[in-house]
Specification:
The protein is of the alpha+beta class. The protein contains 17 helices and 19 strands.
Amino acid sequence: MLKFLLPFLLILTVPGISQKAYSNAKPQISSSYRLFMVGKNFSTSSLTGHVYLLTTAENISIDEVKRRQEDFSLLHDEIPTLGMDSRFHWIRYQVRNASPDTKNLIADIRYNELNDVCFYVLDSIDQVTYSREHFNRKTHISKKPVHSRFFSFPLRLKPGETVSVYWRLYRRESFIVVPAGLFDQEYFFTFNATYDFFLYLSLGVFTFTFLLSLLLYIFTKYRLLLLYSGYTLFYGLSIASMEGILTQYFHLNFSLLEDNTKNVFFCCLNFFVILFAVHFLEIRSFLGRKIYRLCIAQATLVLLFGVYLLLTPFTGTTSLILSAVAMFDMLLVLSLVITALLYKKRIAILYLIAMSPLFVSASWMILTIIFGVTRTAFFYQSFPFLPFFEMIVLGIGLGYKLIIDRNHYLIGLNTLQKQFTSSIVNTQDAERQRIAADLHDDLGGTLATIRRRLWDLRFKINNENLAKELDELDPLILKSSDDLRRISHNLMPPEFERIGFANSLKQFVTEIPSQPTKFQFVVSGDVQKMPLEVELNAYRIVSEMVQNIFKHANAARASVQLLYQSDFLRVVIEDDGNGDKVEKSSVLASGMGLKNSILRADYIGASLLRESGEAGTFVILDIPYRYISNDADEPNQDTAGR
C-alpha cells in the first residue's frame, strides 16, 4: 500500500510542489558538470550527485537545451522528486569510460507512469549520436530498444569515451520521481530477472491466496474469507498496474481509465482494507454500532469515489483528493488496530505486525520530506514486496481466527446439542413416569376389579363347566398384574433414589423370568454413588439392553456385570444368543432403543461399545465418576471424538 501512498504523501506534505521542482537540498547552478567514471568492475550506480535538472514550461528541442547549459541545477537526492505539474523536465549526466575495455551499459529510469520520454546521447562535441523519442507508459515492451517494463536505453562506450546523456520527461498533471540508474548490461538483465522473480512470486502468492480464499468462502460462507479475497485481488492488481505488468505483458490498456487505472484499483483496495479491518478486529463488539456504521460508510465512500474515477478523466485535483482519502484510510485502520489493542484484542497484535512495514515506511517517507532524511533506491524498490509480508501475516491471522471461531462454534453447537439431548431425555423420563403411574393406578386397579368381579361370579353360578373356565382366567389375570407391575417398575423403578443404581438394577434383573433366558447379576468392587441423573440414565441403558436380549436374542444364558473401577464404572452385558442373525432380523425392533441408549450415554459422558457375532452379543458401558453437567461450557471430550 505504501508505494501507492508515495505520491500522495509527497503532495500533502510539500507546499507548492505542483509549481516547482523539489529537492531536499537547495539546487545549485554549475557550469562544470560532475563526470561519472565507469571503471573496469562497474556493475550499477544510482548516479547520485551527478544528475542535473532543467524544467521548462514549453516543449523545447535538444538543440535549445544544449544552449541552456547554465540553467541546469544539480539534484542531490538518490531518488529525486520533480513535483506534480505538466511541465517538461530535462535530466542530464555525463559518463566517461575509464576502463580499457568497451562498456555495454544500460541507462534506466525505473518509473513507468510517464506520458512521454525522449532519450539522447551526445558525444564530446555535443553532437547527437543516438536518440529515441516519444516512449510512454503504453509503449509495448517489444517496441523498446531494451526489453524492460521501465524506460531503458542502451549506452555503448569505447575506452576513454565521454558522452552526455539527456532525458526529457513529461507526465500530464501528475507526480514524477526520477529513480535514475546506470547498469552494466549483463548485471542489468541479471538484476531485472531477480527482481521480477520475487515480484512474480509475490503476485503468484496473491493470486493463489485470492483463489483459495474465494473457494473457501463458497463452501463456508465465512464473510472474512470473501473480504480477504477482495483484499488480495486488488492488492495484486494495483501492484501489477503500478509495475507496468498489465500493460507491458498482458496488453491490457484501459482506454477509459488511462492514468486512473491504478487509482481505481487503489479505491477498491481501500474498500476491502477497511471492511476487512472492521470485521477482522470485530470492532462492533467493543466500539458499538455507530462506529461500525461510520467505518462502513467510509468504505462505501471510497468505493463510490473509485466509480467516479472510472467515469471521469484523470486530473491533478482527483489525485489530490485520493491522496487525502488514502491518508485518512491509513490513519483510520491504524486507529482501529490501536483501539483493539487497548481493549486487549489479541488478534490486533497480528494485524499490527502485518501493517508495521507500511507504517514504518510511511513515517520514513514523511521524514524524508520534512527533515531531509535520505531516501534510498533500496527503500524505493522494496515497496512492491511490503504487501507480500502483510498478506502472509494477515493470512496467518485469518487462519488463527478461523480456528478460534470454529472452536467457539463447536462449543456452542455442543452446548446446543446437550440442551437438545437433555430436553429429549427429560421428556422421555417424564413420559415414562406418567405412563408408569397410569399403568399402576388405572390399569392395575382395573385388573384387580376384574379379578374380584370374576370371583363374585364364580360363586354365583352353578354350572361346573363355566366355573372351571372362570377358574382358568384367574392365573392369567394374576400374570397380567405381575407383568403390569414389572413393566411399571421398569418404566420408573420404585424407590430408585433410596436404594441406588446397583440395587435397582439387581432387583430388575432378578425379577426377569428365567425362561427363555436365565440372567446372572454380578457386582465387583466398591460401589460408588453417582449423581441421580447419571444413575437413572445408566439404568435406562442397561434395562434397554436386557429387554433386547430377553425379547430377541433367544439366548440360554446372559449376564449383567457391574465392575466398579477406581475412576469409572464398567457395565458389561453379554449373552450367548443368535447375535448377527438377530441383528438382521430385528433392526426395526431394536434400532430405536439402541439409538436412544447411545443418546443417553452421550448425555452422561459415557462411552457405549456394542459388538455382535455368531456367538452372541457383547456390550460395554463405561461411566466416568466425574460427571460433566449439561451447563458446561466445554465440549465433552469423549463424545467429541465419536
